[in-house]
Amino acid sequence: MIGWRSWLFSSRTGIRLAPLNVFNTQPAADAEERLLSCCGSKGWARALVANRPYASADDLIQAGEVLWFSLTEADWLEAFACHPRIGEKKAPTTQFLAMSESEQAAATLSLDKIAVAMTRGNRAYDEKFGFRYIVFASGRTGPELLAILEERLLRTREEELQEAARQQQQITSLRMTRWLKPKPA
User: Fold this and answer.
1) Can you tell me the distance from the alpha carbon of 165 to that of 139, in angstroms, rounded to the nearest whole number?
2) What pLDDT score was predicted for residue 94?
């Protein structure tokens, strides 16, 4: 799995390759798998891979955003389903588990009362909208996430679908940025 490393050492050339260079040149299946760790829509990942190479990390991130908002509802729902519910310990697919747990770390440190309310809110959200509560959780506390959930439960399905898509795009952009522009150690 070449794509999982931030930098790859090429034994042939002795040069460390940047994540974008690896992505641009690796087999399509590996490149798609790498993108699926950022966003669970297979159509999104396939389309981005098909349009390689990208000149810069910013070009790839921008292409991902433009493409995301051109996808169908089914593509969005596929991506949403890959996320664990806020406060859950396990994701439906392992490729999202580590990133989601890191992004939700502040929420999991919350009081039991918040956790119970979040579980109830997640259930109400699923029942009302038919998809997972998606929120850019990075840096937010459990009480903040619960307040956002309660506010969003007041929306129509169409309003919420659009908001969830915007939140997914923020999550995806953060994940792509962390992958493509790693901070020096």
Assistant:
1) 19
2) 47
